[in-house]
Write a structure and sequence with these properties.
This protein has eight helices and seven strands; from the N terminus they run αβαβαβαβαβααβαβ. With 183 residues, the protein is α/β, with parallel strands linked by helices.
């Protein structure tokens, strides 16, 4: 498995934009979680791409310790109508366009993991374009990156390469510390 993030950069609480080809984005998600958890970090995955239950199974199959990951799931409610939050494991958001609830959930999950090395991973910026305009996504990611910096937390935003319009891509590039194109 290739290393996408320099451990020293994670220690410095850097924020990354990780670009992947469309056919490898699911694998990149798993690779990144494995890499981050292997460095002793607890990862909070904000998922707009796959339901929590799908990701939890995928992580378990690849040997990722389930206690090293928590989820903010923005897709399950849209698909099945309801789901119960499991404290410390998963919080469900009504839909990926509900940025207020997503921001609140991120803040609450970060508080729950206080005292741990934590990294937020957002999967995926590209999927958000189905639900929101580029302008709203840009504003939200600007809010999240500033929150992470103020709380001294690392962050990863996963996106499909060439899946973002040029204006959104240029704005995201200014919000993050490093852009990594994984192909």
């Amino acid at each position: 498995m290739p290393d996408f993030i320099d451990p020293r950069d994670l220690e410095k609480k850097k924020i990354f934009l990780i670009l992947s080809s469309p056919e490898k984005i699911r694998q990149r998600n798993s690779d990144l979680i494995k890499e981050i958890s292997g460095l002793g970090y607890h990862t909070i995955v904000v998922t707009t791409n796959y339901p929590y239950s799908v990701l939890a199974k995928m992580y378990a199959q690849t040997g990722i310790p389930v206690d090293s990951v928590s989820f903010i799931d923005a897709v399950t409610h849209t698909s099945v109508g309801s789901a119960e939050n499991i404290p410390g494991i998963v919080r469900f958001i009504n839909n990926p366009a509900n940025l207020t609830d997503m921001g609140i959930a991120i803040t609450e999950m970060l508080k729950e993991q206080s005292g741990k090395n934590v990294c937020i991973m957002y999967d995926s910026v590209s999927t958000m374009l189905i639900y929101l305009s580029s302008v709203n996504i840009s504003k939200f990611i600007h809010f999240v990156t500033n929150k992470l910096r103020l709380m001294d937390v690392s962050g990863v935003f996963l996106a499909v390469e060439k899946g973002l319009d040029p204006m959104l891509m240029s704005q995201l590039t200014t919000f993050v510390d490093d852009v990594v194109d994984t192909g």
